[in-house]
Design a protein that fits this description.
The chain is α/β, with parallel strands linked by helices. 38% of the residues lie in helices and 22% in strands. It has 8 helices and 8 strands. It has helices at residues 44-53, 74-78, 81-101, 117-125, 144-157, 166-176, 206-216, 241-256; strands at residues 2-9, 12-19, 27-33, 56-60, 105-115, 134-138, 193-198, 227-232. It has an 8-stranded mixed sheet with strand order 1-2-4-3-5-6-7-8, with helices on both faces. β7, α7 and β8 form a beta-alpha-beta unit. The radius of gyration is 18 Å and the shape is globular. The two termini are 22 Å apart.
Length: 257
């Protein structure tokens, strides 16, 4: 039987999903991150399917989201986007350390995945954490600097006032570059990485993700099975059932076999 527990780590809520029979065992471990304006509960279907395969899964709550929300409007929240991404990346290590130190997660079988903002978090985390053994980005992208420029253009088109100066933007860019996988692809280290992205995505541009995939293909020449890109011709910013199943299969293949 698969169980879902609500827990807290450093006062931050998250969901823990695992097969009840294996609850106290050291297991392969997945952290799955939700998207912008979403919440941890919205990815329970991924967690359930992964737990059925034998993983221990946790679904963290990002700052300003779900139970950690602070009443911000979507426009106000958008201005905190990169703060949320970077804080989430830092918090990932807390979950990993806790479960490994408790003897509940096998540090040689840890995967990271996420949808949208959660995929962006996943790709940024690959620049920082060697303990990630396999990853899945669903509608995410690794080019932090390019995406920030794109976001600013979109905000201007929508008439959303920019509350920061050019100097502040440059400061933000300078800070984000350390997490930008497109600027340091060598940090992938041939680790298994799956992308799923809809070609009609209006939120996270398809081309930013696909051009990165194309740029690193040669790095995987000796391990081609470790890199895969699924593009959906008709999808916008919603993962298909094919994407869901592919994510589960990818993590099973690269962490359990």
């Amino acid at each position: 039987m698969i169980i879902v527990e609500k827990s807290w780590l450093k006062n931050n809520p998250y969901l823990h999903i695992v097969n009840k029979n294996d609850q106290q065992e050291k297991l392969p471990f997945i952290i799955f991150n939700h998207g912008f304006t979403s919440a941890k509960e919205h990815n329970l279907h991924y967690a359930y399917l992964l737990a059925e395969k034998g993983f221990r899964v946790i679904l963290p709550e990002a700052i300003y989201h779900g139970e950690r929300e602070q009443g911000l409007s979507e426009n106000a929240l958008y201005k905190h986007f990169w703060e949320i991404v970077i804080k989430t990346i830092h918090e990932l290590n807390d979950y990993k350390e806790y479960y490994v130190n408790e003897g509940l997660a096998d540090q040689e079988q840890i995967g990271l995945a996420g949808t949208s903002m959660g995929g962006i978090v996943t790709l940024g985390a690959l620049t920082k954490y060697k303990w990630i053994k396999a990853a899945v980005s669903l509608m995410g992208m690794p080019a932090y600097e390019e995406y920030l420029h794109w976001q600013i253009e979109q905000m201007q088109k929508l008439g959303i006032g920019l509350s920061f100066t050019k100097e502040q933007i440059e400061e933000q860019l300078s800070f984000l570059r350390q997490f930008d996988l497109s600027l340091q692809p060598e940090k992938l280290g041939n680790r298994p990485l799956l992308f799923w992205h809809g070609k009609k995505d209006p939120i996270v541009p398809f081309h930013l993700t696909y051009q990165f995939y194309q740029s690193v293909k040669d790095d995987y020449e000796e391990t081609p099975a470790n890199l895969h890109f699924i593009s959906d011709e008709n999808a916008d910013h919603k993962v298909s059932r094919e994407g869901l199943q592919a994510a589960v299969s990818w993590l099973e293949k690269h962490l359990l076999t």
